[in-house]
Amino acid sequence: MGALDGIKVLDMTQAMSGPFATMLLGDLGAEIIKVEPPEGDQTRSWAPPYMGGISSYFMSTNRNKESISIDLKKPEGKEILRRLIKTSDVLVENFRPGVMEKLGFSRQDVMEINGKLIYCSISGFGQTGPMKDLPGYDLVILAMSGLLGITGNPDSSPVKFGVPIADITTALFAAISILAALYSRKETGKGQYIDLSMLDSNFLVLTHQLTAYLSTGKNPEKLGSAHSSIAPYQAFRTKDGYIVITVGTEKLWEKFCNALDPSLLGMPEFRTNVDRVGHRAMLESKINELLKSRTTFGIYKILSEAGIPCAPVNNVSDAVNNDQIKFREMILNMHTDNGDITLPGTPFKLSDTPGTIRSPPPLLGNKNEKILTGAGYTPDEVHKLYIKHVIFKRESDLKE
User: Fold this and answer.
1) 18, 23, 162, 320: which has the fewest Cβ within 10 Å?
2) Domain locations along the chain
3) What's the pTM value of the predicted model, to 2 decimals?
4) Intervals of the chain under pLDDT 70
């Protein structure tokens, strides 16, 4: 039994932020009905690579979902969505502001159909304000929020995170908002509207960098992997790779020095954290000299045994094969009709209602009949919807 068993979510999202948010709800037990256009979620074509006949990009955010493919421009398609809304708890969409209104499913329209629905709209800049109509992609939001301006080395061009982190951050805020609204509904019996902005979400992610600016009026500097207020706290080069070292207290600094070079303890430039931050370049040079002839694993072993928080800088294959990742079941194998696939596990380790991976990402329209029958359509009516090209199905996303 999942924590969200009995909750039905209409997922009208594509790409990353919306699908990732609804996937999290699905991991927690919610029934996720992915409502797709005739051509499917755009990420179905973001390939290669493929896994089990489906784009691996699509696979990353769409497990535990059932797909129905509808042409919402046709009256019959709109009627299908109305019926689904009547029996759903949550609707999530990430169209540009105004698109749902043009389709006939504005906030007001939907609440008239189902006053208990949690209606979450995810957009780049929110449903209000002078920028509301602009498209919001991950890189655009990173740039606009200020996050991209503090990422990278001092002498480098702006550096994007390796995954669409602005989308993922937004997805987390969306999932939290939906859970909060569901909890509120238990008390009030009413649904509500969630206006979730990628810019709002990622502006908050500035956290201490933002408050540092607000308190000083000085823009934070780009420091690569280093920390603005702690030293040493960054990645250092070794003989055969990189290791991150985080020395956040004076006690850890003493342990660090005793493990690598006790003479550092006698240097006045490094006596306190404030001193070390003020002499960051000198400290970095000293540590680089100590590490340049040693292997990553050798340094990791020494520092770990001394109680210093540190880690080798892994590539993806290293992370996948990490014993802790395996022990925590964060890599799962699953059998599907299109072959065996491997998926990330779920981080939801609740004692009584843990997250589960119950089904692989769906082929387009894989549950048309089941979903429509549940909405009250007869088999004959479903057949006619196929003939009239209102609903669609695909046996494989592989191109001919």
Assistant:
1) 162
2) 8-205+325-392, 233-237+242-312
3) 0.92
4) 396-400
